[in-house]
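3.2 Worked example (two chains)
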Amino acid sequence: MKKPNLVQSVFRSLSNDAFLLLTCLVCIPLTWMIFLGWEIGSAATSHDTLPGIFLSLKSLFSHHGDWTSYLYRPDLMGGFKLHDVSGCLPIFEFCGLLGLSPIASINLTVFFIQTCIAFLGSHAALSLYFLWNQPEHDGPGEKAPDPSNFWFIRIGLVWLFAFAPVIGWRLCYGHYFLITGSFFFFSTVALYAAALTDRISYPLILIATLANIHFLTASGFQGVAYTAVFGCPIILGLFLPPLLNLKRESKSQLKGLVVATAVLVAGVLLNFRHFAGLLDHSLGSDASRTLNGESVIYSYTTANLWDWITSIPWSKSIFNLEREFPFHHETNYPLGPLLLLLAFIPWKKAKGLGVGLLISLGLAIPFSMNVEPVASLLPKLIPLLLGFRVPARAILPFAFTVPIVATAGLLYYFMKGPNRYALNQNRSQTPFILAGCGAAILLLMSPPELRELLLWFGVMAMGAATFIDRKNFSLFPLGWVMMILGLGTVLSFKERLLPYPTEEQIVITPDRIGAEILSKAPSLSNALVRARFNLQIPLFGLNTGYAVGVSTLDGYNPPSFRFLSLVAALKNEPVQRMTMVMVLQENEPIFPILKNLYNVQYRIDADQTGIKPLSLGPTLGGAWFSEKIERVNSFQELGNILRPLSTSASTLEDFLRKALKERTFMIVDQASRNIPGTLQGSSRCQEARVLDAQALRGEQIFRVKVSTPGDCPLTLATNWASDLVAETQDGTGKTLRGLITFPSYGALMGVWVPQGTTELVVRAVPVLPFWANFGFFLGVLVVLVVLGEHYYRRI
């Protein structure tokens, strides 16, 4: 018998999964345009998307998606890490490589995330349906029909998963990384369910791999941790019983389990190149949020009973959410009438699932509400949980699972045994089409409250009728049931939407303001020259300076922990690790010190006549030499030394500059541990001069020209970072030698400059240890082996 060729084998493997994937790719953007009012050219999401992800994408795309050029920028909060704090999703790199605009990339990312969730969720539901339809006795049994043959069901499934209201909160408010951090959970459920039912296909391998290469490449570690801790009982409940009952003769399922495991392992390995930097930063001294710090679980919001009651319906209009609007997306996790569909699950076959769901729910709710003993016992057992706030997110694994198992139960109950005539295509479809269209129009025209009641009543009526008399299934054609439920999720998703930002608002206006500022204050084109903004672009807020291309101290982002510690020490206040907002006013006593250290030369005002950059007077400049290094033991000690300088005499500015140049301070800690104690400074450092210090906008390279008759400490007006290195170069740019770096004044970039140096360069380098590169290429190899094995398995 002639073996099929590669094309034939791949086509045979695609089957209905290819149509399911095609439905996702077509249905999702069309739904945004038809039902959600989105237009091409506008950004699909807002809120945290714009001051964070969007502005970072502009910086990344200036280097065509090369993440190694996306490590550090001096623009925001005195200088901050980009990649090692926020990460970089591979979809961002892909968009940058294609040359897409940041707006198009945001939209493509949203569609990609929804496609992964819709395909993996739908595939998992279909596989569980087949798993529960497997005969309990030995023998072949009757093969269950494939619901994905029917396009109404495919569309309904895509809507139910891609536009789930609980996903809507996350997407619409820019919490992409929290969702991508949960991709491994979706992939695990989809792959193992497919393995047990011999349904692993090329589209599933492709989407699972693409999803998994995103789950450790960005700062969505809370999604990873919560789905691992609170999703583990669900996964064990789903798959442990069928795995224990798996017979040795089930070679196909065993091979499928090996393939599924290999795909998951490959996904982890392919994350390593990005994950290495994220891990290195989280364990370093400049990370404000660490994996081994104090508890921040209840530092922001703590759930209450009313939050969970209001999370029962899909619509947010049924109950008064009580919380202020900015907290709605953190305290509302809608589950909707899918909760009623759990009754259709064959619980005799899914006892483990029931136990897993109860355990997950029983841990998540008291943990989120700070109820003992769970609230204290769980973090003690799993210290990783201490580093994540908003504990209500612990419900996400349960909320992600409900649509999967509910739709699987619905499919099982409608299509098992004699009830399969519910999909009988020989009957006249006209009554069902008219009834379905009427129901859809009714939902579209109804206010949210009425729509919610109609959906709940419809599901209860369907359940009552079918439980009383299974012949009444004919009254509820499954395709239309799925479509109506899916439409309900889309309309509830719409309730979470924010106004779509336009190109005029988020691209043209910031660029125009930035150009006007630079035309009036050209020195601000140097990223080491900063300004204080008294104006804000509404959609960017405190990150207005970053948006218009001007460096600032203020901002909305996780700042360097050393910068936080310096500010707190100067204010004589405790450090708040979870700080996301930094605002420093000119009338604050500490501002003169920070103004000089960080070279804040301008204030940006605006009135009816336009933008007005006003000079704040001289500073120490973008870089300066000090006469000596003085070691101190803590930021508190440093604050006690510097704080009195801010209240000194009428000649404050001159005094400050002189006092700060006389000596720099180095805190004896992790970052300075390897600095030789003999480094003190030369008696000739008073004669050392900085001739020029430049940092181009959108770059991570600082070039400093100096004249130094001795070995002297130099300070750059930007925050120290573990991935910044310094080196001397000759006129051709060739590196002559590496230089010692240290945190100057506890937070700024310090460099020990040898005698005779004329030019030095400070640049950011990626953290790429051997294990990261080895793991990545091993992951590529595993994927190739899996694809090859699947090919030979299918022929």
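3.2.1 Second chain
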Amino acid sequence: MIKKFLRRVLRLGFGTEPEVIAFKEHGIARDALSHGSSRACETLHQAGYHAYVVGGAVRDLLLGVRPKDFDVATDALPEDVHRLFRRSRLIGRRFRLAHVMFGGETVEVSTFRAGNADEREAVEAEAQSDEHGETRPEEPARTTDEHGRSRSRERARTTDEHGRSRSHEPARTTDEHGRSRSHEPARTTDEHGRVLRDNVYGTREQDAARRDFTINALYYDPSNQTILDFHRGLRDMRKKSVRMIGDPRTRYREDPVRMLRAVRFAAKFGFKIDARTRAPIRELAPLLENVPPARVFDEMSKILLSGHALAGVHRLRIEGLHHGVLPMLDVILEQPLGERFVNLALEQTDERVGAGKPVSPAFLFASLLWHEVLAAWKKAQKDGLRPIPALHQAMDRVVDIQTEKLAIPRRFTAAMKEIWLLQPRFEQRSGRRPFALLEQEKFRAGFDFLALRAASGEVPQELAGWWERFQHAKPEERAAMLVEPQPGERKPRRRRRHKPASGGPAPESAPR
């Protein structure tokens, strides 16, 4: 208790010292970094600051995956970073940070942040337990210097090589313009514990403790090519385990999106979710309803475009998280045709990502929601609506329900509806209709969707085969491929021309 009190009052670091992993052990040379992140760290070092490449970039490099982004963490304040880099801008209200531009690359540079008191206690308690869950004895609250002299009565202050106070200085807060806000709460949460604002700056150790998972709390120092591991992240990586830093229940309440991230990392890397990390997920899944739909869509897109969408979506269902992102997934997967269709769509998406081919989020979401649209379409026709008006009603209903959970951008929902509206037109293979359909902007996406439906057994394979041949046939061959109108298929009506009677008055011009 005395130790915890001293740490809270003096804002001392907590937990053990980081494990320093040398280059010969991890094998990541500074040349593996992007040009921008390497330059950012070098400039900050030359200005007297500490700077590290952090988070997912270090994790991916250790796993042999080329990172998409390289983020940097530093003890420099955002306004200091902005001052050092001419091509930079400050962004964010919840988390204040700098974007530094190097040619076409944008490097996100964030200042070390501190966690709250509860978070520090939770991480400290975790640091007292070894990998078998046994509690280690607490160290005495007395420290000594390199000569063995007692430092228990010294001021809890450390300095860097330039003499500046560093790791134990009080947390600093600023507003969006860099002005001091010490009189205002820099960390605010809602009634569910979700963090709404957090601009409390702290130490490197505190910054590592406030990160979500141990595999993301690795700090790479380009100056000496070492990795600082504060929470045994490398050990968890070797065990293929996704483990939360601190108390999982508290951390999920702070940011419910962490539950989706746990699923994404487990699916993407073939890891398992640590039992203690997994335990509260199903109970706390409803907290996703309090997250802005745009954030949920962003995280869901990462799962679907990770190259492991099939594993990710099914893992969401296992953990009970799909109700917050794809509420209709249960209904779809309970239908044999629906399950086969969704699985094929996800498998094809994973294959395209693996082959480096582009993937359309609109096509993917159209696939995930199609069988719900199909059910609503059939119901609307049974209620008396004609096919096309019924399809419009079904599309609007399903999209409205889904966008309450996921803020699917309008450009995607518009493309989804175009793909859906093309499906009944593929059944019309007579007259000029097939030729007109080939001219549609979304024809290729619509045909790929038709082929997916045929592969799942929803429509005859012959229909998809006919359109495959028709689109590649020569003009004279296409005319021979046309079929007779099907029973019930409406023939196009010709416009009748009304000739004015000879000598009669000319028709009046329409009003403008």
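3.3 Remarks
The chain has 23 helices and twelve strands.
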